[in-house]
Design goal:
Alpha-Beta Plaits; alpha+beta; single chain; four-stranded antiparallel beta sheet
Length: about 100
């Protein structure tokens, strides 16, 4: 299993829109991707603008398939408009 953690620094005036975008558009679209297992959105306890998106896929090929898909690429401009920067970390589940 592959897990990706993406940290977002969301524009302060865009937090509600960011959360809505994840729930209404991003996660439902991702859920149709082959190998998709789970997607969660977390907000850091001491920050109103720092979020962690946690994504799980069956394997590296499934995760890569989502990242390079046309539907993912189509969502990117709307997502990118909501944050100032992000950082991606990938993990392989061991146990």
């Amino acid at each position: 299993m592959i897990e990706r953690h993406i940290t977002f620094n969301v524009h302060p005036d865009k937090t509600a829109e960011f959360e809505r975008f994840f729930v209404e558009r991003y996660r439902p679209t991702m859920a149709t991707s082959p190998g998709f297992l789970k997607a969660e959105l977390l907000r850091e306890g001491d920050s109103l603008t720092r979020y962690q998106m946690v994504l799980r896929f069956e394997d590296a090929d499934s995760a890569a398939g989502w990242r390079t898909s046309e539907v993912h690429q189509a969502l990117q401009p709307a997502l990118t408009a909501l944050f100032s920067d992000n950082e991606i970390q990938g993990y392989e589940t061991i146990a």
